[in-house]
Amino acid sequence: MEIYVNGNPVEETGDEKASVREVIEALNDWLAGQGAVIVSARLDGDVLDLANETAEVLNSAPANHRRLEIEAQNARLLVIETMNDLGNYLDRVARLCPTLMERDDPRSDIENLKEGLQWSLDVLERVEGILGLSYKEIEFEEDRIRKYVLRLGDVLDHVRVAVEEQNRPALEALLRDTLPALCDSLVRAIPTILRAGNLEPTDTTLADDIEEILGMVTGLPERLEAIAVKISMGNAAEGMEEFASAVSILEKAFVCVERSRRELPLSREDLMVDGQDFEERAKRISGVLDEMIEAFEKKDRILISDLIEYEIAPEIEVITRLLERARNFLKGSCH
């Protein structure tokens, strides 16, 4: 079995190992000595689910396979990038989950939330191991990081139980009261965790973020229209990938507005446009995006165009105006 790491051949074949799993574990140990970690793997061209402990293919003999391809990344850079992603995700959860149960059918959103919270726990646990930290020893806001991580696990368990028992009042209380405050705390704790591992957060200034996002949202409605055409012409896989990227840009714009609200002395009126405040718009655009996803999956070109023209484009214009207000406030405060 040929072995490649980041496209470069490795002399060993791994055939002396009893299983593919053992080969990957040996490679992981070798890469760890170089300050790197495995981020993905392909066996004979197929993606391996490294998190699946029971995957039969991982227990197969290396000699039965032709090629193992490993993608590795510098562990410390990966930690910074992943923790930034985690912060953005938890920020969105804190902002959107209080109104999650008000949707017509929140079941799929709740399932996504459960998966996202489990991913958050996995990230926090893995970062603790990669950086050689002990969350029990790291203080944050008169408590220890470990307690926040345990609370997140407890909340996830309570959400699962509430869903299983169809206990709507309990689920609403968790999403409205408990989870947003905990997510906010964890977002604020991320720089403390990184510094404990001798890493500096890659936080850009708010002004930099606003300029970047304003550049990204320009032309987004036209980009969505082009993606819709691509999907209707039969290129669904590439189109859906580009659509996910466009949605990510829109989510980043909302996160940037939320950050502006937290970090700048903006009043509620400053974030009002056409009589709607930011929370109302966040709730509305979330519902529109759900419709967009469904329309893209069904390749409903007419509905996609209508949603882009009458829903998405106006909201992007509003987001742009809000970000411009924040930018102008920052420029004014510098003089």
Topology at a glance:
Blueprint lengths: L1 E4 L2 E3 L9 H13 L3 E8 L2 E2 L19 E8 H22 L10 H24 L8 E2 L2 E2 H20 L3 H29 L9 H12 L2 H13 L3 H28 L14 H21 L2 H33 L2
Parallel strand pairs: 1-5
Antiparallel strand pairs: 1-2, 3-4, 3-5, 6-7
**SSE run:** EEHEEEHHEEHHHHHHH
Give the strand content.
5-15%
Cα separation of the termini: 65 Å
| Shape assignment | globular
Number of strands: 7
- Regions with pLDDT < 50 over 5+ consecutive residues? none
Number of helices: 10
Name the helicity range. Answer: 55-70%
Structure explained in plain terms:
The structure is a single chain. The protein is an alpha+beta fold. The chain has 3 domains: 2-74, Ubiquitin-like (UB roll), CATH 3.10.20; 77-196; 206-333. 64% of the residues lie in helices and 9% in strands. The protein has 10 helices and 7 strands. The protein has helices at 20-32, 75-96, 107-130, 145-164, 168-196, 206-217, 220-232, 236-263, 278-298, 301-333, and strands spanning 2-5, 8-10, 36-43, 46-47, 67-74, 139-140, 143-144. It has a 5-stranded mixed sheet with strand order 2-1-5-3-4. A two-stranded antiparallel ribbon has the order 6-7. A hairpin with a 2-residue loop joins strand 1 and strand 2. Helix 2 (75-96) runs antiparallel to helix 3 and helix 7 runs antiparallel to helix 10. The longest helix has 33 residues, at 301-333. The chain starts with a strand and ends with a helix. The mean pLDDT is 83.
